[in-house]
Design a protein that fits this description.
Number of strands: 12
Order of helices and strands: HHHHEEHEHHEHEEEHEHEHEHEEH
Radius of gyration: 26 Å
Distance between the termini: 73 Å
Mean pLDDT: 89
Helix content: 40-55%
CATH class of the largest domain: Mainly Alpha
Largest sheet: 5 strands, mixed
Low-confidence stretches: 1-12
Number of helices: 13
Strand content: 15-25%
CATH topology of the largest domain: Arc Repressor Mutant, subunit A
Shape: elongated
Length: about 325
C-alpha cells in the first residue's frame, strides 16, 4: 500500500512537471522582473496570447492567481514571490546543464558587459578598464551603473549586471568575489587651508570641521568608531552621498575629509588638494570584483575580472 502511494505521488508530480516547460518558467521569471505581460512578450519574442496561455498554465499548476492585474501592471502574489527563488534556481541549473561553454575572443566580441560600481571605483578603476576594453575588445558594449553595495548585490542575484566593484561583507552564498586591492585612507584639505601648515595631530584633526561621504546621510562612520575607542570625537558638519562631490566641496571650503587613498591620489592634483595620513589608525578595506556563481565559468567574466585585477595592481593608481 505504501509503495502504491509513493508511485501515485511520483505520477502526480510528473504530470504537473509536464505542464511547466522551460518557456512557461521563463515567462514566470520575466513577469516577476518586468511586471507587464506586453514587456515580457517583447523581451521573449512571443505573442501576448502565448504569455496569457503560459500564465494560465502556471495558475493551474500552482493553484494560485500568482499575478494580479493592477493599474501599474501584474502584481505578484505572496505565493509567486515565494516560488521565484526556487524557479530561478531550477532554470539556472537547467541552463548550466545544457549549455556548452563558448570560447571568448575579446577581439571579435560584441557582448554586453554590465558593471555596477560606486563613484570611487568608477573613478579609480573603470576609466582604465574601459581604455583596455577599447583596445582589446573594440566591439564589446559596456554599461556602467551607479550602484551602492546592497543594490549591486541584488542586481547580481537578479541577473541585471555581470560584475559589481567595491567593498562588501556578509555576501550571499551565490556571490563570488575576486580581490582587487586593499584600500586605506587619507585626509584631504584644500591648498591654502588654515591647517595646511600645521602638523595633522589628533587634536588638530578632531578640532577641524569634517565632511563625510554617506549615501544615507549619516554623520558618523568608521573614523568615528575608531575615535570613540580613544575617547575622542570629531565635528562632522556635512554629509554628501558620493566621493567626487566631496572632493569638489573640500576644494572650495575649509572642510576636511577622510577618503580612500587611491581616490585621493588620483584626484588631488585635479582638485588642488593636500593629503596627509590620518592621525588615527583606521582598518583598511578590500575592493573586489564580484559576480554570481552562474557566471563562474564564463570566459567573458573571467577576462573582465583578470583585466580589472591587472589594472588594480598598477602602482601608478595609488
Amino acid at each position: 500500500m505504501q509503495l502504491k502511494r509513493i508511485r501515485l505521488i511520483f505520477d502526480i508530480d510528473e504530470i504537473e512537471l509536464r505542464r511547466l516547460d522551460l518557456t512557461v518558467l521563463l515567462v514566470f521569471i520575466n513577469l516577476i522582473r518586468l511586471r507587464k505581460a506586453s514587456d515580457v512578450a517583447d523581451h521573449m519574442g512571443l505573442t501576448q496570447s502565448s504569455i496569457s496561455h503560459s500564465i494560465k498554465r502556471l495558475r493551474d499548476a500552482f493553484g494560485d492567481p500568482l499575478f494580479l492585474r493592477t493599474p501599474k501592471g501584474m502584481e505578484p502574489t505572496a505565493v509567486a514571490l515565494g516560488l521565484e527563488p526556487k524557479i530561478r534556481s531550477a532554470v539556472e541549473t537547467l541552463s548550466q546543464a545544457i549549455s556548452t561553454p563558448v570560447a571568448f575572443d575579446p577581439a571579435s566580441s560584441t557582448d554586453m558587459l554590465r558593471i555596477g560600481a560606486f563613484d570611487n571605483e568608477m573613478t579609480t578603476l573603470v576609466p582604465r578598464f574601459l581604455q583596455r576594453a577599447r583596445a582589446e575588445a573594440p566591439g564589446m558594449r559596456v554599461s556602467i551603473l551607479q550602484l551602492g553595495r546592497r543594490p549591486a548585490i541584488d542586481a547580481l542575484e537578479q541577473g541585471e549586471i555581470d560584475l559589481a566593484l567595491g567593498f562588501a561583507w556578509n555576501l550571499p552564498r551565490s556571490i563570488r568575489q575576486a580581490k582587487l586591492y586593499d584600500e586605506s585612507y587619507s585626509v584631504v584639505l584644500r591648498q591654502g587651508h588654515p591647517l595646511a601648515q600645521k602638523q595633522m595631530t589628533l587634536e588638530v584633526y578632531t578640532a577641524a570641521e569634517h565632511l563625510i561621504v554617506s549615501p544615507r546621510g549619516d554623520h558618523t562612520g568608521i573614523v568615528d568608531e575608531e575615535l570613540d575607542k580613544l575617547g575622542k570625537a570629531r565635528r562632522v558638519t556635512m554629509a554628501v552621498p558620493q566621493f567626487l562631490p566631496a572632493l569638489a566641496i573640500v576644494a572650495t571650503t575649509d572642510l576636511i575629509a577622510t577618503l580612500p587613498s587611491r581616490l585621493v591620489a588620483s584626484q588631488s592634483k585635479r582638485y588642488q588638494l593636500l593629503s596627509f595620513p590620518p592621525p588615527v589608525e583606521i582598518r583598511p578595506f578590500t575592493v573586489s570584483a564580484m559576480h554570481h556563481e552562474r557566471n563562474a565559468n564564463s570566459p567573458m567574466h573571467q577576462w573582465a575580472t583578470s583585466a580589472l585585477s591587472i589594472i588594480a595592481q598598477d602602482t601608478s593608481l595609488s
